[in-house]
Amino acid sequence: MRLDDAISMNPDYIVVGAGPAGCVVASRLSEDPNVKVLLIEAGRSSDNFRVKIPIGPAMMITKPGWDWCWETPPDPTMNGRHITWSAGKVVGGGSSVHGQVNMRCLPSDYDEWATFVGDNGDWSYEDMLPYLIKCEHYPGSDSPVRGRGGPLNVADMTTVHPLAEAFVGAGEDRGYARTDLNGEDPIGFGLTQATQKDGRRFNVYDGYIRPHAGRPNLGVLIKSRVVRVVMENGAAVGVEVAAGDTTKIIHAAREVIVSAGTIASANLLMKSGVGPGEVLQSAGVPVAVEVDGVGRNLQEHSGLSLSRFIKDAWSLNAAQARPDLGAKYLYQLLVKKTGPFSSPVVQAMGYVRTHPELPNPDLQLHFLPFAYRMKPESRSALAAEMPKKAAVAMQATLCKPNVRGQVRITNADAESAPMIDHHLLGDERDLQTLVAGCKLITDIFESPRFAPYVVSGCNPLTNPTDDAGWVDYVRNNTNIAYHQVGTCRMGRRDDPAAVVDPTLKVIGADRLRVIDASVMPTVPSANTYIPTVAVGEKGAEMIARGV
């Protein structure tokens, strides 16, 4: 759709951002033929080879043509390293550039959300399970909590690394159950389920928008950046859109729904005059609606990997050094829809407790069929050094980081990036949990399940000999999981820290909602894609019901 066509459409609802929540909201609202919905995306089309192939993230993450590349200042808790906070700059958002890991997270994650919104907020696991089922098509289980016939295709891996099975077995050796990580009791170890179909990425656009592209009441505008929500007397009446050299206003007859992602949604609200008064005034933005919580409560999963060179098993690293292997794997992907290049970034996962008395797991462990080394200049794990010999890695990621950060604007320029103020290892409890995770991974590598495959250390080359050495290793190697949440968190309308109420309406504003991962009060215990889709499903249903 062209910009002028979008204006003449006279939409009832404008959805900003065609990511995991925005595509869901636009699709569900447009099921009513009497409602006109406009979905606006700043990024490019997802109809591209890089998006479709499972190894595509390495070609998109930290690449400005595909990634917003939100940069942070030097982090003193990580020895002054910079980290790029990636977000998909493409139709499908994160679902077009992420590692295709399908995780619902833990029931306790949603029950925790419910404590923020009150007893009648309808955000508990019991409340959210119908949406988790509704969004999914997974024929691999007949469990009553798994979905069939939903928009998003979920598949078991076509090519399982032998050490992925060893990883799950090592979990069983330590007393953890082998489990369906998205099933009735997800705590344990299991093989990854992927958001794929026929060995290719299946993103949220493929599931929710592409099948309905012919709806006359659904418009999609790409390569068009919303620079501000137009506010009049405390109400959202439309958006100002920049497309090429043209900037125009599109009016919304009913509501504007901001679904731009945790960093961009907070940034857009503040650039539109909705946010903390002190921050807006210092940036030179007139205050339309003062909402102190916008940009605060920023959370992100932090973690790091340990790796070993291996023998007698395939590795994505080896394909770098041997073009014949790369060609073989590509042939298997394109022709047979199998092989190492069809693999998601993570092949197996496990929830673990570093202390047995903990009520819930505090670490998520991942098995990766490749290895990488973070260097001081590495801005991302996917842009780090990859050794050119067969190697595998295990990653430890915090389930519930204690540290909190903030996103804030520093000027009124619509094109300028916000400031991300977040010290990943700024809480000693998080640091010590990751140290414990490193020791646990070391034990697994040295276990009877793995030891026969291990040749030598990769990263680290040799293990630290004391806790001080492990602390230094953690500070030098920690990175993010691309799971940022929380900057527009939900809560009761009388909660001074809340940005949106339980119906996801911006508190103090009219005709304006936020529906994406930014509304999550706390980060879920694992990958945030499917929880974000569920938020989109619930948000769209509330709008359709007139809530």
TrEMBL record:
Gene3D superfamilies: FAD/NAD(P)-binding domain, Glucose Oxidase, domain 3. The lineage of its organism: Bacteria, Bacillati, Actinomycetota, Thermoleophilia, Solirubrobacterales. The keyword Oxidoreductase applies. Signal peptide: none annotated. Residues 12-301 form the Glucose-methanol-choline oxidoreductase N-terminal domain. Its cofactor is FAD. It is an enzyme of class 1 (oxidoreductase). Belongs to the GMC oxidoreductase family. Its EC number is 1.1.99.-. GO terms for molecular function: flavin adenine dinucleotide binding; oxidoreductase activity, acting on CH-OH group of donors. FAD binds at V90, V226. Keywords: FAD, Flavoprotein, Oxidoreductase. This is Alcohol dehydrogenase [acceptor]. Residues 401-536 form the Glucose-methanol-choline oxidoreductase C-terminal domain. Pfam families: GMC_oxred_C (PF05199), GMC_oxred_N (PF00732).
